Amino acid sequence: xxxSFSTKYLSVLLLPHVTMAQNATAAPVAATxxxxxxxxxxxxSVxxQAPSLAPSTAxxSVxxxxxxxxxxxxxxxxxxxxxSxxxxxxxxxxxxxxxxxxxxxxxxxxxSASPTVTASMSPSSKGFYESQKFxxxxxxxxxxxxxxxxxxxxxxxxxxxxxxxALSSYVPEDGTTTPxxxxxxxEDTLGGTSFGKGSYHCVTDKKKWTQLxxxxxxxxxxxxxxxxxxxxxxxxxxxxxxxxxxVVEGDWSQLHSENMYLDYLEPYGLKKFCxxxxxxxxxxxxxxxxxxxxxxxxxxxxxxxxxxxxxxxTCDLIGGYLFDHYCIxxxxxxxxxxxxxxxxxxxxxxRQQCNYLLGHSFGQFCAVKGLYTQFTSMLPGEGGxxxxxxxECINLGGISFDHFCVVKGAYAQVIGxxxxxQPEIESFSDVCTELKGEYFADSCAVKGNxxxxxxxxxxxxxxxxxxxxxxxxxxxxxxxxxxVLNEDFDEIDPGKGAGSSSDGTIVIVVVVVIAxxxxxxxxxxxxLKRKNNPSSSNGGGAQPSFPVSNEQEKLVxxx
Length: 559
Fold this sequence. Notes:
alpha+beta; 3-stranded antiparallel β-sheet; 24 strands; 26% helix; globular; 15 helices; 18% strand
């Protein structure tokens, strides 16, 4: 079974962001020009784009599944991804007032947000195409874990905050047309190495860096322009064609809310949480930059339709902050799942596995605290027969269910390609052997703080050369358009090659010789002291004595 990075799978993971984009803009999905702002409306209203829930489109709640009733996983149909069937959270009223013209409620859209390839498409076809892009980008974040992954993508299927920082000015569908070179920022300011076409990418392990994005990667309509002011306030460096990116030192979390109107309609929301934690809101109140590691759960994956599942009891149990269909909790957590985004099949029941991992189950998900990694032998959009990975999971010391495997600890799933349409890499099993990993279904499970770099993004039709020379100089493992690096990769001098082993041996021998000489000197000095002061060999004679009772003497003798 081959592994691919399907567009359908990606669209499922990213749909919550797509829905957010539809809520935040006054322009319909059709390729008509966006209308000018309408007269203002009070903050208690919602945008007219939020479609009301028709009884025929709102599916009834699904009872908790049992393992025996689980259906096979299949890709989501095009109809389920169409914007016309997108269902908004139940908190949004069905009324349709005009959109407010106040700056705090009206997102700034980029004029280049509509891709040329969709200009001749019908509204439904365009919506489906853009949903696929959004889902595939989210899957990219989940599997390759770039430094610009948002908190939702980082939490889904587990993450490792200790991997090197992979930054980029070449983010899918960021509303711009020209990526910028990162060479100066990367090498002069961040102490990293730029790579790829146009030096659009950067990797560094000198310090920990986090990249914030003033929009939703993969969704060109949900970007909010320049973020220089917000970036400066948190001590970061803004970059990009529109200064739509910010890189800031340390561990930061970019929290997300697709419905910014919750802050006006309800007594809770992302803004309230962000202000309480001394964070920085940006992106027209859709995002919060918060220093530290925070995990964000979502009960609605990209591509899901219908009313999101409730996780109030679980969120309360793990000490999280609940709003809409999200739960934010401080620290490293993982959201395990019985199916991938874009999968419309009936979810499996993983309560037994969740209990075994001492986690908290909610619907098709499981919340576990700590460093966990969930592997999958079928990537988004792959259909056909599911490939179990029981044997490989046993070798990894994990717990398997269906075509998944969950392992505790720092691991990474290295993939051979994104999409099913890409050709297989014949030597990928050899690559996995070189990485000392566990090979399964054209993927490789490797233990350690590994990061997989790529010069090619989802839906990318541009030519990108291999990065073998750069990867070799960083002591990494290169194949196709990818490079796999472990932490502290640039602290090893690759020029020494095999000679580094002999050099290390010489250093060890010198240290041992010095230690022996020091011990000999100490021994001679001790002998001379005993010769000059015989009493020292009999306990020193000058040590103070303490009275000892008969009971204490008997106790000592008994012992």
